[in-house]
């Protein structure tokens, strides 16, 4: 999955899957946050522009806002991480996506996103 | 340039994430705040608290001088005893909260907040006129390691500290041949001690505590868990729950204010008036009734009206829910069990006023 993943400098990722896009935060961001204790996701059908806040995630220390890497309409949310936010810290848990969206984003919206490998270089 | 304690390299070697705290580069967590928190409640944890301020007050007038500075009656202290105090300003607000230890006649030792040492020294010096007293800041000479948890005293005992001082007392001792001051105090609500040691011996003592602590399940604990532990025990944090515009009475610290002390002290008129006639704002504890988390500076509401502000908020790993401290307008209706709301990201979330502390303290008195 990592090879198709595009990342923002604010640690969100987006990856295309069967015509839809899956959005979440990077493994690096999760590690930096530490114990994740709260996740708030938007309602299905809500629409967001690129760089708009769509979710909030809280570690023991602080609340962080999560931004849309591209614009789109929410078609599915990951209820599991809302019910059990600590799953995000579990290395064996793979279902770490936040939302799935439909998007009509054009090239311009993708222009500032980084390949996963470039992102890793940027943060490390 | 941030300051470093003499244990800084140890924290980095242990894989700690370091953050700036009051100008010091300090470990916020080693593994996980929640895991570290639980380990202090169940076993024992080590905290580097060398950033805290240490002051010596000595001289002929030290007792009269200290009695002018705090609402507590320092005359009641016998040698080796300590008292939790507040350094009050003329309006009864808090310059800092402290622990004052009587070492011997005319010699007192003070532990102060790292973020407030300069203000404390300034305020003490301003009040010094007319008193035959010396104030020495010895913070840079000593390291301070807190050993906290139900197995803390067993651990120290296994290292040869057989005769630990009683709760809120201090004594000089020898730990594996190193001169230390051992104080039966802490900031977690658990039994334990704080070990003061000359800087050059800090790494040795830290390493030995980790080594001897293995059978007791010892873990190094960062400032993240220090904060969640003190919040569960409802111990105030200066800068969050205490400041220059808040009196000890408003802060729920009346228990620590002497009702019988005859000497005048800074802010006594305000504090005595509040004790007699009540306060306009008061500190309360609350628990969230949903999964949301209240944070410092969030607004508090009741019946659609803004009634106060959250000063500390976060998770309670032991209770498995989210808790906080807030200052609210005093009212007969707003007592234990009353429903309030916290404004979180422009939405009101239900909370309930609860008794403090959130988790029962287990200090051995």
Describe the model:
The complex is a heterodimer of chains A (124) and B (365). By secondary structure, chain A is α+β, with helices and mostly antiparallel strands. Chain A has a single domain, classed as Beta Barrel (OB fold (Dihydrolipoamide Acetyltransferase, E2P)), CATH 2.40.50. Helices cover 19% and strands 36% of the residues of chain A. In chain B, 20% of the residues lie in helices and 35% in strands. Chain B has helices at 8-13, 33-42, 62-69, 117-126, 152-158, 202-213, 223-232, 268-277; strands spanning 17-21, 24-29, 44-48, 53-58, 82-88, 94-104, 107-112, 134-137, 142-148, 170-175, 178-183, 192-198, 218-220, 281-288, 299-302, 305-316, 321-329, 339-344, 347-354. Chain B has a six-stranded mixed sheet with strand order 10-11-12-9-3-13, with helices on both faces. A six-stranded antiparallel β-barrel of chain B has the order 14-17-16-15-18-19. Chain B is globular. The chains are: A alpha+beta (124), B alpha+beta (365). The A-B interface holds A 34-35, 37-38, 40, 56, 58-63, 89 and B 17, 28-29, 32-34, 224, 228, 291-293, 295, 314-315, 345.
Proportion of residues in helical segments of chain A = 10-25%
Shape of chain A: globular
In helices, the fraction of residues of chain B equals 10-25%
CATH C-level label of the domain at 8-51 and 140-232 in chain B? Alpha Beta
What tags apply to this protein structure?
heterodimer, A: about 120 residues, alpha+beta, OB fold (Dihydrolipoamide Acetyltransferase, E2P), seven-stranded antiparallel sheet, three-stranded antiparallel sheet, 10 strands, about 20% helix, B: about 375 residues, Gyrase A, domain 2, Elongation Factor Tu (Ef-tu), domain 3, six-stranded mixed sheet, six-stranded antiparallel β-barrel, about 35% strand, globular
Question: Summary?
Answer:
The complex is a heterodimer of chains A (124) and B (365). Chain A contains four helices and ten strands. Chain A is α+β, with helices and mostly antiparallel strands.
